[in-house]
Design a protein that fits this description.
Distance between the termini: 46 Å
Low-confidence stretches: none
Largest sheet: 7 strands, parallel
Strand content: 5-15%
Mean pLDDT: 95
Shape: globular
Number of strands: 7
Number of helices: 8
Structural class: alpha/beta
Helix content: 40-55%
Amino acid sequence: MRPLFDLQGQVALVTGAAGGLGFAMAEALAQHGAQVMLSDLDPVRCEAAAAQLRGRGLAASAHAFDVADQAQCESAVDAVLARFGRLDTLVSNAGIEGPVGPMRTGTPRDWERVLGINLLASVWLTSRAIPAMAEAGGGSVILVASIAGLRGTRAIGPYGVSKAGLVQLARSLAVEWGPRNVRVNAICPGLIETPFAAQLLADQEFMARRLAATPLRRPGQPEEVAGLAVMLAARAGGFITGQALVVDGGTLVSDGG
């Protein structure tokens, strides 16, 4: 039997992979043996990220596309299947914060953009990828949500709604495709040290409050999320599906003291 975290022979597609959590997950999957296709909106940054991994002896390629476009999402999955003949793991990670402020401040265009990139892109990607996985005998889908989708928020309402949608999407797809051996889970990070969170990390007042409410008293590191992605892609996560797995240092369960 293969080692629990061995991904040799697997093919993975990771969106939003030019930096931050996406790059960390792509790197970790490749380190454990997967052939990884990195995708992002900017083709230059996308290729640079893949080249960085190849420079370390890892199997990585780039395919830039816009997750806000359904046709491009479908074509990206088709490109992976055409190039490698299989897709074992899909990591739908690309996302945006959207408007900051009370829920009512989001314009219709704001809502369309946040829901399109953060939620509908995962619908489009999974609709194309999962049937191919099932036909090949199974696979793993990882949707990158957030603890903002598991609790209320005063400042980033549309973002939280979109991430809550990802959690429910994981549950529904897990039920639908479990009989075909396709597992679908959501990862819900808390505050992680990435460029995405740079503004929060620089806000001393916010950080004092957040760390006081976080039992581990620190922000997370990208590799601490990436490790969970590896587990979910590997045999180690073979009996986990339909779950919202929280990586937040205990923030969500804290009493705030």
